[in-house]
Amino acid sequence: MAKSGNSKRMSESTAEYVDQLLEKHSKVQVIRLDLGYKKEVARTASLDDINKDLTHLLNNRRAKPSVFGNMIGYIAKREYTEEKGPHIHSLLFFDGQKINKDAYKGDQIGEYWENQITNGKGIFHNCNREKNKYAECALGMIDHTDKAKRTVLKEKVIPYLCKDEQSIEQIKTPGNKRSFTRGISPRKKSNAGRPRQCVSSPATDNSSEEIK
Question: 40: burial class by Cβ within 10 Å (0-12, 13-18, 19+)?
Answer without folding.
Answer: exposed
